[in-house]
Amino acid sequence: MRIILAPMEGLADVHLRRLITAQGGFDWSVSEFVRVVDRLYPDRVLYGMCPELKNGGRTDSGTPVRVQLLGSDEGAMAANAVRAVELGSHGIDINFGCPSKTVNRRHGGAIMLQEPDSLYRVVSAVREALPASVVVSAKMRLGFDDTSLMLENAAAIEAAGATELTVHARTRRQRYEPPAHWHELARIREHIRIPLIANGDICSVEDYHRCVATTGTIDVMLGRGAVRMPSLAQQIRNNSPLESPWTSIEPLLSDFWRQLSAVLSPRDRIGRIRQWVNYLRQRHPEAEVLWQLIRQEADIQRLNAVL
Predict the structure, then answer these.
(1) Per-residue pLDDT tens over the stretch 53-85
(2) What is the mean pLDDT of the segment spanning 22-48?
(3) Residues 6+ apart with CB under 8 A from 301
(4) How many CB atoms lie within 10 A of CB 301?
(5) Cα four-point dihedral sign 101, 49, 31, 89
(6) Which residues are CB-neighbours of 200 under 8 A, at least 6 positions away?
(7) Cα–Cα–Cα angle for 92, 167, 148, nearest 5°?
(8) Do 220 and 202 form a contact (C-beta atoms < 8 A)?
């Protein structure tokens, strides 16, 4: 069993990664994606998206972090992959799943699932640029509009030399709408030989077991399920369906607020704390009370008193 914290643009930043991985159970985490266009970026860009590189490529609790790159220029992708590893990234992950229209218009993310040859070129270039000992993984969806190229895309990524493949069990058209189609992952697992990591709608220990039974893989990537329940990875690893009480979440919120207060403007940190509480209230009834207190509150002193 391997459990990974998913990359989540605009949500799982360095601060949330630190808090969630500190709850235990994760084998590694993946950074928010670095958008690669046509050149090697200065180190500050990689440090900006993955500050853990200044800490040996690990969160404060010791969880390895893998830099994720997104782009279709194979030369630039390879160059930035090499530099990220030199700076301390524990492998490289390549994003073929981002559903953003802006990203897709620039030929990045899920749009590339329409072109298996493009997947092959990018993964192959990154793989050839790095030592064989460095993990090169990729993350994709079932397809762009449908699953017609699903198996061909997975095979292209494998043939290009990827070490492992994570699949979000939705198409780009679905974005994040339920359900996740785990049964399609079973087809992929039978079609490739590299390890398959399942992603999508794994929000409880029960979900994990149902996903394993459906897909045949024991490795999973947790995304918003872990944002709603930070101890989810540890619960799965211990096979403990008892969810963490709200009293264990409250100190995490206070810690998160203190972190944000040190680095963000008042407006930005208010937005971030609202974002997380909005996720938490989907699993914790107590969070609804807090949500009602902060949803329109803009006074920092009042928020300090609540958080």
Answers:
(1) 999 999 999 999 999 999 999 999 999 999 999
(2) 98
(3) none
(4) 6
(5) positive
(6) 168, 169, 170, 180, 181, 182, 223
(7) 125
(8) yes
Tokens of 260: 């944000």
Q: Which long-range contacts (CB under 8 A, 24 or more apart) does 44-50 make?
A: 46/80, 46/83, 46/84, 46/87, 46/89, 47/87, 50/14, 50/84, 50/89
Q: How many Cα atoms sit within 13 Å of 291 on the Cβ side?
A: 14
- pLDDT at position 298 over 90: no
| Greatest distance between any 2 Cα atoms in the chain | 57
Query: How does pLDDT run across 141-191, given as a tens digit for each residue?
Result: 999 999 999 999 999 999 999 999 999 999 999 999 999 999 999 999 999
Yes or no: domain 3-238 corresponds to CATH 3.40.190.10: no
CA distance 38 to 138: 20
CB atoms within 10 A of CB 271: 12
Q: Which residues are catalytic?
A: 98
| Total Cβ atoms within 10 A of residue 306 | 13
Angstrom CA distances, 244 to 24, 37, 180, stand at 13, 42, 25
What distance in Å separates the CA atoms of residue 17 and residue 290, rounded to the nearest whole number? 22
